[in-house]
Amino acid sequence: MRNYIINSIFFLSIITIIVSCQNQETIDLQNYMSNGKDIYKAKCQNCHGENGEGLGQLAPPLTDSVFLKANKTRLACFIKNGANETLVIHGKEYKEKMPAFPELADIDVAQVMVFVTNSFGNKQGFVPYTKVSKDLQNCK
Amino acid sequence: MNKITAYLATSLLAISIFTACKQERKLPFYGERHAETVKDAAGAEKIDTVYQTIPDWSFLNQDSVVTTNKATDGKIYVADFFFTSCTTICPTMHRNLMTIYNDFKTNPDVMFVSHTIDFKYDKPHVLKKYAQKLGVDGPKWQFLYGTKDSVYTLAEKNYLVAVGEDSTAKDGYIHQGYLVLIDKDRRIRGAYDGTKEDQVEQLKKDIPVLLAEYKK
């Protein structure tokens, strides 16, 4: 009986630890999402639109999940350094230059990136800013 | 019987009062004004208010064609000042103006005129590319290129929109995002912040009001 109680307490605490770990990531995600939304409104929305719909052929929409996934490690570079190449999004070519946002710190880039990749119909999960920092060091 | 007559009379009175009170909404006049003595058709002198008007202008449009104020004759139009490489307020302004453009696409009495303030880079072919990418085709929406002096004077003195070069600004220029509504007599009848959705909605409602003034 005693063994049984000890065992169940042990397993319960393990489960609690796992659950709370997941919770930490959920909390981080929520944090990133809410801060990222503010940054998006201030820096991105005027061209990419309130719902990520883009603007004609001038600014591409942010709703192409396939593009976002394929370019996962480059997204941070686009956000911080801008883009000056032809990008194919939803099968259409976009050639306009995207401006750089050098004023954004790594954490800001991470937050706005997590917001974009988890809004407008995208659902690509959480990326910690340490990973984004690494991506930013490898920008071409 | 008497009662019915009295009842009818009161309701008639009420109706006439209500109709008399109902005034048509009219848009205000912006800018300077002065009183002037004019002669009407019969030759009788009377005093009239003269409002500020947009003077004659002549610029190159997105097709490199010389375009003058004659293009807007007999039309009301919405004017604004922007530049193609602007990444701050212009995309929002033109995104909002696009919705109005689409609403009045088939109305021949409504026009759109966008002046670039980037006299160094926004030559007509750049404006053409911009218009196409925005999704605008045809003469209903004119994108106009002119010298710094002519455009800036027109903006500040006549459309009452502040514009300027500013090397400290992110894109090199600063300007206000007003959409200015001009009537068929070239008078300013409204100015709406093109970056604010509620003001753009108001412009959408005011265009038919202004058009109605000319229907009589």
Automatic annotation (TrEMBL), chain A:
Domain of life: Bacteria
Keywords: Heme, Iron, Metal-binding
Domain Cytochrome c, residue spans: 31-120
Molecular functions per Gene Ontology: electron transfer activity; heme binding; metal ion binding
InterPro entries: Cyt_c-like_dom (IPR009056), Cyt_c-like_dom_sf (IPR036909), Cytochrome_c-type_DH (IPR051459)
One family name in Pfam for this protein: Cytochrome_CBB3
Protein known as: Cytochrome c
TrEMBL record, chain B:
Disulphide connectivity of cysteines: 86-90
Keyword Protein transport attributed: no
InterPro entries in the cross-refs: SCO1/SenC, Thioredoxin-like_sf, Thioredoxin_domain
GO molecular function, one term: metal ion binding
Family affiliation: Belongs to the SCO1/2 family.
UniProt-listed PROSITE patterns: PROKAR_LIPOPROTEIN (PS51257), THIOREDOXIN_2 (PS51352)
Listed transmembrane segments: none
Residues holding Cu cation: 86, 90, 175
UniProt keyword terms in alphabetical order: Copper, Disulfide bond, Metal-binding
Superkingdom, taxonomy of origin: Bacteria
Taxonomic lineage: Bacteria, Pseudomonadati, Bacteroidota, Sphingobacteriia, Sphingobacteriales
Protein name: SCO family protein
Domain Thioredoxin per the UniProt entry, residue ranges: 48-212
